[in-house]
């Protein structure tokens, strides 16, 4: 009989466990996940609009656009950030020395503008990125010359814009 009483005492001393669900940490986790997903999807979209008549080449490539100085090469001219810099005739410079000088000056001016903005606003970084939007018929010699001018001004990280196959 004593054994039974002890067992009953032990059972009576047990505290009842209530299964409470604390929702605050779970809400915190979902909030962090939501912010992460929104940041991931919205940070990778930039708008690239080639001029009329520029047909970008087809290729397989990475889909990670960057915000950079945009240089467009078409059969009629070279533009930097949508401002015409050099006039071309079927991808040929009409006056080679003046054309190349104007290209160098325009890239240098864009670089100085970027440096000035970085000096005034500490949140702005001086980037070495350049995005080339070259027509698929643009000769390699011309693209190489544009890249060389950009490299002289410190734009060493370049990307070539292409249209991905299947799009």
Description of the molecule:
42% of the residues lie in helices and 19% in strands. By secondary structure, it is of the alpha/beta class. The mean pLDDT is 80.
Low-confidence stretches: none
Residue-averaged pLDDT, rounded? 80
Name of the level-1 CATH class of the domain at 58-164? Alpha Beta
Major sheet description = 6 strands, mixed
Please state the structural category: alpha/beta
Key descriptive features of the protein:
167 residues; alpha/beta; Nucleotidyltransferase, domain 5; six-stranded mixed beta sheet; two-stranded parallel sheet; 42% helix; elongated
Please sum up the structure shown:
With 167 residues, this protein is α/β, with parallel strands linked by helices. It is 42% helix and 19% strand.
Topology (elements, then pairings):
Blueprint: H1 2-13, H2 23-42, E1 58-59, E2 69-73, E3 77-80, E4 83-89, E5 92-93, H3 96-120, E6 129-134, H4 140-152, E7 157-160, E8 163-164
Parallel strand pairs: 1-8, 2-6, 6-7
Antiparallel strand pairs: 2-3, 3-4, 4-5
């Amino acid at each position: 009989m004593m054994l039974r009483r002890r067992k009953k005492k032990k059972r009576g001393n047990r505290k009842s466990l209530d299964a409470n669900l604390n929702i605050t940490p779970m809400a915190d986790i979902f909030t962090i996940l939501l912010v992460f997903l929104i940041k991931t999807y919205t940070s990778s979209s930039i708008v690239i609009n080639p001029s009329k008549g520029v047909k970008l080449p087809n290729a397989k490539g990475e889909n990670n656009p960057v915000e950079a100085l945009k240089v467009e090469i078409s059969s009629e001219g070279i533009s930097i950030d949508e401002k015409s810099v050099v006039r071309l005739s079927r991808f040929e410079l009409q006056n080679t020395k003046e054309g190349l000088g104007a290209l160098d000056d325009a890239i240098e001016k864009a670089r100085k503008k970027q440096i000035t903005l970085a000096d005034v606003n500490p949140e702005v970084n001086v980037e070495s990125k350049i995005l080339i939007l070259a027509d698929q018929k643009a000769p390699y010699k011309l693209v190489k010359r544009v890249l060389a001018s950009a490299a002289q001004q410190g734009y060493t990280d370049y990307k070539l814009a292409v249209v991905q196959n299947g799009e």
